[in-house]
């Protein structure tokens, strides 16, 4: 029954890459909006309300690419011959980084909700640091998926 995934493999991989790129773009941009919102968007100002709209729309948009990334990634895992669960350990750090990015995505949604309710207490410096996290996870994911060093 799963054999049909072998024939779909190139397209599954393409759709997975497209969805991951889109998801990552959102994960890079939303925390950057938090940086600017914390710096310039005092609660109740027009600037703050503009940031709230931008953050909400981006947060809602990012859900689709995250779900698609997971769906196509699971299809790749289910494709016979793609992952050797006994041969190499590369898949485990990759999956750990993907789970971490999923947590990070939900963390971003929570932060967005705090901004929306004018409850943010974090500084722009905090968000600048948090903005680097997806890049580190992306390095782990790409190295593990492409080079498979372990």
In words, what does this structure look like?
With 150 residues, this protein is mainly α. It has five helices and no strands. The protein is elongated and about 55 Å long. The two termini are 30 Å apart. The model has no long low-confidence stretch (mean pLDDT 95).
Mean pLDDT across the residues is 95
For the sheet with most strands, the description reads: none
Radius of gyration: 18 Å
Name the helix and strand elements from N-terminus to C-terminus, one letter apiece.
HHHHH
Helix content: over 70%
Q: Please mark out the parts with pLDDT under 50 across 5 or more consecutive residues, or reply none.
A: none
Number of helices: 5
Beta strand count: 0
State the main characteristics.
150 residues; mainly alpha; elongated
List the helices and strands and how they pair.
Layout (H helix, E strand, L loop, with lengths): L3 H37 L5 H33 L12 H26 L7 H7 L2 H15 L3
Nutshell version of this structure?
Helix 1 packs antiparallel against helix 2, helix 1 packs antiparallel against helix 4 and helix 3 packs antiparallel against helix 5. Helix content is 79%, strand content 0%.
């Amino acid at each position: 029954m799963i054999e049909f995934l072998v024939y779909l493999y190139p397209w599954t991989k393409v759709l997975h890459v497209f969805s991951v790129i889109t998801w990552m773009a959102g994960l890079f941009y939303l925390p950057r909006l938090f940086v600017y919102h914390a710096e310039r968007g005092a609660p109740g100002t027009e600037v703050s309300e503009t940031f709230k709209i931008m953050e909400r729309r981006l947060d809602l948009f990012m859900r689709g690419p995250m779900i698609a990334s997971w769906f196509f990634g699971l299809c790749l895992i289910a494709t016979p011959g793609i992952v050797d669960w006994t041969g190499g350990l590369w898949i485990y750090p990759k999956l750990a980084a993907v789970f971490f990015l999923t947590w990070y995505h939900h963390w971003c949604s929570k932060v967005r909700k705090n901004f929306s309710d004018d409850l943010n207490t974090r500084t722009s410096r905090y968000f600048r640091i948090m903005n680097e996290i997806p890049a580190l996870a992306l390095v782990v994911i790409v190295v593990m998926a492409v080079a498979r060093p372990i």
